[in-house]
Design goal:
Helix content: 55-70%
Strand content: 5-15%
Distance between the termini: 50 Å
Largest sheet: 4 strands, antiparallel
Number of domains: 2
Structural class: alpha+beta
Number of strands: 4
Shape: elongated
Amino acid sequence: MRLVSDWRRLVRDALLIVGGSVLYAIGIDCFELPNGIAAGGLTGLATIIHAVARQAGVILPVGMQTIVMNVVLLAYVVLTTRDWSYVSRSIAGILVSGFMMDALQPVLPVPTHGELLISAIWGAVFVGAGVGVVFLSGGNTGGTDIVCQLIAKRNGMPLGTLSMIVDGVIVLASIPVFSLRNALFAGVAMYIGGRVIDAVVDGPRTARVAYVISDEHEAIANKIMYDLGRGCTELQARGVWSGNDRPVLMCVCGRTETARLKQIVGETDPDAIVILGEVHEAFGEGFARIGS
């Protein structure tokens, strides 16, 4: 029975990765790439390089560029994590999304050529939805988040702030290649894409608090701390009906981690009670500093 469940999860995750990668490729190939919108991330950087190389008579496919860049960054993830399930899903997301971008580009239409506003909006909707669907599989499509994690571990800056800085630098770098107008619409696409990811993965909020009640609380807590890389707090509680003391685990996690947390709990104790709530703000270690 466990084997059947594992196969169902594997097929589900594979379909999420492929489906999300197709949506991602549509957003890039139909709207952002042909209109010179480099909306941050490694794909935005690859879009800039693609345009510069094309002016020199060289064709550098965007999808292949992102695969190469992510392979270098993924080496860092492999060396710093024991979560091989996450690594394997991330590798799949990186390879499939990169392949789909290059494979679908010759056959997909460009319905909004020259219309920057509508291209930024719909490109962000498809890209955000695609990334969000891949996140639901427990993996990701790679990108500058890995760079931000590496920098955050060195200087303690919040990941959200770092992501804005890194993506902002990429958008600024697109100005001399495309134009200031294109860069402004790339900023619009970045914002809308982030909101769509939130809506797909976690609803309108960017963080959630999880309460987990399980007899396997020690094993779940270890996986949350060492596989998910999140802090975990054990609260002492007592069941009113049974009168027994039962620990409750509390963990605050980001939008990309909720699906993985539920997967960890489900694999360790399918009978565990998991309560998820929206968090309006989170401060402290691993989050923004109080007052920032």
